[in-house]
Amino acid sequence: MDEHARFDTLLQTETACCLASISALVAGFATYSRLQSSHDDDHVDRLNHLYTVTILVAFAIFVGGGQYVGTPIECISAVNTDAAVRAYAKTYCWVRNTYYVPMKQQVPGTSWERERRELSYYQWVPIILLFMALLFKLPCICWRMLSGASGVDLDRIVSLTLKSQLGDDLKYTETVQQIADYMDRWLDAHRQYHWNVMVRIRQKISKLCCFCFGKRHGSYLSGLYLVVKLGYCVNVVCQFFLLSHFMGGWFNIFGLEILTGRYKDRQWRESPYFPKVTLCDLEIRQMNNVHKWTFQCTLPINLFNEQIFSFLWFWFIFVATLTMASFLLWVLRALFRNTRAGYVRKFLKAQGELTTEEDKRLAERFADHYLRDDGIFVLRVVAKNSNNVVISDLTLQLWRIYKAKPLIRNGAEEVMV
Fold first, then answer.
1. Please, how many CA atoms are within 13 Å of residue 309, restricted to the half-sphere of its CB?
2. Relative to the CA of 25, which of 58, 324, 333, 400 has its CA 20 to 30 Å away?
3. What is the C-alpha to C-alpha distance for residues 60 and 199, in angstroms, rounded to an integer?
4. Do the Cβ atoms of 223 and 211 come closer than 8 Å?
5. Cα separation, 257 vs 236, whole angstroms
6. Residue 205: what pLDDT?
7. Assign residue 411 a region: left if phi > 0, alpha if psi is -120 to 50, beta otherwise?
8. What is the pLDDT of residue 407?
């Protein structure tokens, strides 16, 4: 009995240490301070990579604590067994899958029928929750790693605009001017100054494909962001298939059964998906004789698993809806290129800068040839994380820098892409 007890304790301790290590790794990506220090995406992105990750990690720690600190399973047999067999059965039935048969039904006599009713998820719930959290964080990690190649520190720009609002007017004006100068240098550094047949062809194709040709075409950040947005959409949809495969094929319709009342008809207190009482077949060899027992086991942790996965089904639907809507909005902005000029004209008009028809035509060139997709994208991200006053003042400063350029001042057209 002591040996089995020590084995049980050692197994729980090692598993708990493994779970704690993985939990700490994932939780490190989901701290609140990282939310405060990162302003290079929108609120829907944070709903995916921060709030959902935090929820999943919290559930994993809660369930893992119940499994590896408390008593995850208790088993008894109709046949009188000694303490050593009961201790062994408790560990064995936890490690090996149990199967569910309602009390009013007869236990199947064939092994394949019992295997068909096996529950294969309850030992791995904390691990799968942490894995899902990592998948939700993955698009954000890719965005943070690859966006730096654009040459602009988007997070720093937004952070400066937010901090400048708390200072005096002079400090605010200086900060906005510094940001505008920084963006101007960045925009000029990534222009295509060589003009030949190949450049013209790529420019024509770029107008059709909108965001496919990188930094020299002013579309690296906006194109990368759309790919990351698509990654969020694919991830949240794949979570349903992942959980459905992991849970036994029923998770996709789980929430619908709750909404339609079918799940209630299947007895909420004794769910076929999260049963609290299961069966476990055990074979023990004594010399050349094999003794077979069927133990009845309780799974207290399924009380919480049922509520957790019910919540996650509706939460994933909510996150998927907002994520897809946000992705479609950004795609429409990329497809309809005239929205760029309309976006900057709105702020310039509020500042009283568009007084003549020439100014309006110049504002269109300002958006299409100077800011381009990436410049407009930066302004939109700043607007998402600050307010219209800041973005209006920043647009005004960029407008004045653009008008002061020699080609513009002399009335010549820009030839740079």
1. 28
2. 324
3. 52
4. yes
5. 20
6. 55
7. left
8. 64
